Amino acid sequence: MKPMEEVKVSTLYFVDDGTVPNHPSLPVLIYHRVFDSHEHFEKTITSNQWGNTWTGGVFSYHHYHSNAHETLLVIRGDADLLIGGRNGSTINVTFGDVLILPAGTGHKLLNASHDFTVIGAYPHGQSFDICTGDKNHRIQEIMNIKNVPLPETDPIWGEQGPLQLHWH
């Protein structure tokens, strides 16, 4: 893992597009090429109090989580993701990148290499819902997003990570 001061951090803000609420105040964080080799990815995030981990891909439809923040660590391959809903931004992620998505942030897989794989995790192992912008649930989902507590730690660097700077 690279030292924190050597990692480029990008921030992206998105507004509610009428279907995907996104987060009203927190930016998406992208840590570029944090990892150079196949290290103990899961151990890194679980030791920083992010859990309920899973390994796989990203859904190919717009979705978001109204009750949890999410981190995605790219552990193989590369992909283009649409972040922020239909009017969002297309970003390319590759091995070693880390995304931190605040609750409500839309994300969707556009295309990927055959081996694209991420590890997903949530602060304190929170359970997460999968929302697709159903108008019948919108008011409750927006209330959920506003009530998700801020993580106490950065998924990669714990108490000293960039998340603390950008989200607190």
Task: Summarize the structure in words.
It is globular and about 45 Å long. The chain is built from 3 helices and 9 strands. It has 168 residues and is of the alpha+beta class. The mean pLDDT is 96.
Strand content: 25-35%
What characteristic shape results from the CA principal axes?
globular
Which percent bin holds the helix content?
A: 10-25%
Order of H and E elements: EEHEEEEEEEHH
Indicate the low-confidence ranges by residue numbers.
Answer: none
What is the helix tally? 3
Short description:
This protein is of the alpha+beta class. The chain has helices at residues 41-47, 138-147, 162-167; strands at 9-12, 28-31, 50-56, 70-76, 78-83, 89-94, 98-101, 107-112, 117-123.
Task: Give the topology, please.
Layout: E1 9-12, E2 28-31, H1 41-47, E3 50-56, E4 70-76, E5 78-83, E6 89-94, E7 98-101, E8 107-112, E9 117-123, H2 138-147, H3 162-167
Antiparallel strand pairs: 1-2, 2-7, 3-9, 4-7, 4-9, 5-6, 5-8
